[in-house]
Amino acid sequence: MMQRTDARQLANSHWYEILEAAGIDGDSLDGNHHPCPLCGGVDRFRFDDQEGRGTYYCNGCGAGDGFKLLMGFKSFAFKDAADFVRRVLGEGERTPPPAATPKAHKPPAGPSDGQRRIEDLRRAWDKGRPVLYGDTAWRYLTQVRKLPIAQMPSSLRFHPRLAYSVKVKHPDGSVGFKVVGYFPAVLAKVVDAAGKAVTIHRTYLSDSGKKAPVENPKKLMRGLPLNGGAIRLMPQKEVLGVAEGIETAFAAHALTGIPTWATISAKIMEGFQPPKGVTTVIIFADNDSPDEKGRRAGQDAAKVLKERLEAQGLKVKVMMPCKAGTDFHDVWIGHLAKREAARQRA
């Protein structure tokens, strides 16, 4: 019997699919804060997958790598976890090949997982429609979030009734998803560095135009590898801005005039790759308050991105709000308040 591949080496850079196969909601692995799958704490868990090791941090139960998360979630010993990784990734014990025998006829292969994801994305996008004056998506962006958007980009669409699902555990121990409601939603197309659509970001809304009363009103669909992707909210120029959230990107543009794209999260921002023709990147970083270990997701992501792009010969500048715990949307709202106060004094 031949020696099996080391499980840690095999799992590297595959933790998203491994953990989702174990039953952890893929939406909680997007680099943002979510309920912890181990201790259940609300909004205290963040999956950052440093060096492809499946790393995470929870303010309640601490930090670890993918194996620690898998072992804790499934109550596995390490050997069980290693065997699970091999099964998910198609790596069993390897034996010498048998003598050649006639191959049995195989039926035509069905669609691959990647093809199914593409079809799911296409169906969701096709059910949306352009954001129009007065609809729920328009009210959310321009009235609730107070963003001065002259023309809605084609990268955003409005879905009038999008299903919202939560993870459920069945009596037999298996994990699935249950639709618990339907809400209006903003759909945002995420494209990779080459301009290829790879996934869809969803913002669930109430009929009033505010965020929907659900646990995670912002979710990223399971799609293809991001490969430096972003939501392209406006045409690129030689100087291009990048921010985490859609609202933050629009606000940064309103404040500076620099066309700005959204990367969705700090973790995704680290891997952002501007397209050809961009010579300067302005990073509009969130001024995140430190977690229990002193880490600041927004600042750390900006530093990683700046160093990587500068190594490619690009000019990079980081801009950040002065006040801890704020982003450029907060700055924009403050700017509007000052402008209104000045108007009333006049």
Describe, in plain words, how this protein is organized in 3D.
There is one protein chain. The protein has helices at residues 7-11, 15-21, 66-74, 78-88, 113-126, 136-144, 246-256, 266-270, 297-311, 328-345; strands at residues 33-34, 45-47, 56-58, 62-64, 129-130, 156-169, 175-191, 197-204, 218-220, 239-243, 260-262, 280-284, 315-319. Helix 3 crosses helix 4 (78-88) and helix 7 crosses helix 10. The protein folds into three domains: 7-88, DNA Primase, Chain A (Alpha-Beta Complex); 129-223, no CATH class; 228-346, 3-Layer(aba) Sandwich (Dna Topoisomerase Vi A Subunit, Chain: A, domain 2). Mean pLDDT is 87; it is low at 92-111. With 346 residues, it is an alpha+beta fold. The chain is globular and about 70 Å long. It is built from ten helices and 13 strands.
Please sum up the structure shown.
With 346 residues, this protein is α+β, with helices and mostly antiparallel strands. The protein has ten helices and 13 strands. The protein has helices at residues 7-11, 15-21, 66-74, 78-88, 113-126, 136-144, 246-256, 266-270, 297-311, 328-345; strands spanning 33-34, 45-47, 56-58, 62-64, 129-130, 156-169, 175-191, 197-204, 218-220, 239-243, 260-262, 280-284, 315-319.
